[in-house]
Amino acid sequence: MNVVSFFAGAGGLDLGFEQAGFNIIWANEYDKEIWETYERNHNDTILDKRSIIDIKEEEVPQCDGIIGGPPCQSWSEAGALRGINDKRGQLFFDFIRILQAKQPKFFLAENVSGMLASRHSRALQNIKEMFKEAGYKLSFKLLNASYFGVPQDRKRVFFVGIREDLNFEFQFPQPLKDKITLKQAIGDLKDLAVPANEGNKTNEKNCKIPNHEYMIGGFSSMFMSRNRVRSWDEQSFTIQAGGRHAPLHPQAPKMKFVEQNVRVFVPGKENLYRRLSVRECARIQTFPNDFIFYYNNVSAGYKMIGNAVPVNLAKHIAISIKAQVENAEKRLNKPTIKRLELENTAS
Known about the structure:
The structure is a single chain. The chain is α/β, with parallel strands linked by helices. The chain has 2 domains: 2-174 and 313-339, 3-Layer(aba) Sandwich (Rossmann fold); 182-306, Alpha-Beta Complex (DNA Methylase, Chain A, domain 2), CATH 3.90.120.10. The protein is 31% helix and 16% strand. The chain is globular and about 70 Å long. The active site is at 72. Belongs to the class I-like SAM-binding methyltransferase superfamily. C5-methyltransferase family. InterPro entries: C5-Methyltransferase (IPR050390), C5_DNA_meth_AS (IPR018117), C5_MeTfrase (IPR001525), C5_meth_CS (IPR031303), SAM-dependent_MTases_sf (IPR029063). It catalyses: a 2'-deoxycytidine in DNA + S-adenosyl-L-methionine = a 5-methyl-2'-deoxycytidine in DNA + S-adenosyl-L-homocysteine + H(+). One of its GO terms (molecular function) is methyltransferase activity.
């Protein structure tokens, strides 16, 4: 099945779908800092570099599925329900506009867990109504990536819509029994990381492993307000899009509590505290080793990785979508197949 991807970023969601057997034939990403990374890692995908608001429906290839994660702000704008006819600059509405025009078999849209907060209840209701009006049966669920082969606590909301004529409601995959630890994910990288160059410019030439460099610089009082270290036998904190907020490496002991909202590094162990490297964050997001990130400032590397959907989580959802859509198509085609068999027997 062929899929097109919007707000593709570095392509974590896309890669997960590829690993599940889908073909990502076309993708859209407006951030020029990401283009080289996407194109070098997705050789068979056409990358459209315009803003979605400038893309006409007929310019998007016909496909079996549309996937992507419209930015958080555009989801919130749905609360005002300005309407499909007033969509310029409102990225969520452009996602709906193209979905409505192309009518693929399914769509997937991803958003942060805060989308389910009570203050967004109106937006959520409007979103559900718009997807229904577009011709889709909607399923949505809050998933923690740590239950789907990702060594990280990361909660995100996924909306999956199935075109009405396929006549079924998507069921999300069940959590896996075992969790992956930080030791399993990044233990082999422990002694090979290098600090970024001054100004947090890339130090790639000194990296024995691609992207295995970490951001340097101090830690804010906000960062120091709580523990930022997870142990080797645990899963990581959420990998964020900002390098300054990257979790600390598990080689360090957990930060020492001083008082409410104040913690310090364990005295005498300060040298063990460093941010996770770009490559370690990529591993935790379950990008494969041969997926290389291209940037001049390490902050851009952290941003690409932190904004991505974890590859393994995307893969598990994609496998479920593929199986359920194919089963529905077989079920719907059975009467036709039976009729043809009877006609052939009669002749």
